[in-house]
Design brief:
The protein is α/β, with parallel strands linked by helices and 197 residues long. Helix content is 26%, strand content 30%.
Length: 197
């Protein structure tokens, strides 16, 4: 891999465009990923926000769920925001019928924990590993992490709730840094991808 990693954004549903822009601003080659053959060509992957149940069902429909599980289990760097955090959880506290996860982070996540769409908010969040002070977190029907296992590290908390977790090459945030114009969390993830190369 060169210093410019190729990072995909899972483009089944959700705010794909914003992540592509944020990754490009953090010196990565960013491309949408919809099919297993596209997944095979990237060095890392972002799973965006959206609707986690819909994303899970579309991943099955597009033949992506098992390839995603295999790549994440094999150590491919992956970053999930909001619904992406839910998909990276090993366990969901209150799953919808038929909802599956990719897994990869030893955490239990509660869906829509911060409330409905009209209860969305922004807050300054200190994220371990992100220099330069707090990032502005946009919380939209956001999950939070109820608990983490021994392998996972809590990297950000808002109030009394865990809102960012890292385990090995996997990173997840409850909030959407791609909506703020501040691309430091994406830069952290690009550095994680470079470190694997």
């Amino acid at each position: 891999m060169t210093d410019t990693p190729v990072i995909g954004v899972l483009a089944l549903q959700g705010d794909v465009r914003e992540h592509l822009i944020a990754l490009a601003s953090a010196d990565a080659v960013a491309r949408p990923v919809r099919r297993p053959e596209e997944l095979a060509e990237v060095d890392g992957l972002v799973i965006p926000g959206g609707e986690s149940t819909t994303m899970s069902k579309l991943a099955v429909l597009f033949g992506m769920l098992e390839p995603l599980r295999e790549r994440v289990a094999a150590g491919m760097p992956v970053y999930g925001t909001c619904a992406g955090m839910i998909l990276l959880a090993d366990k969901i506290l209150d799953p919808r019928s038929g909802q599956e996860t990719v897994g990869g982070i030893d955490m239990i996540v509660r869906r829509n924990a911060f409330g409905r769409q009209n209860e969305s908010f922004e807050a300054a969040v200190e994220v371990d590993g992100v220099p330069g002070g707090p990032v502005e977190g946009v919380f939209i029907r956001a999950p939070w992490v109820e608990s983490v296992g021994a392998g996972a590290d809590v990297v950000a908390v808002h109030g009394n709730h865990i809102v960012a977790v890292r385990q090995g090459n996997a990173l997840a945030t409850s909030f959407h840094p791609e909506l703020t114009g501040d691309h430091r969390v994406h830069a952290l993830f690009v550095d994680m991808v470079r470190a694997v190369g």
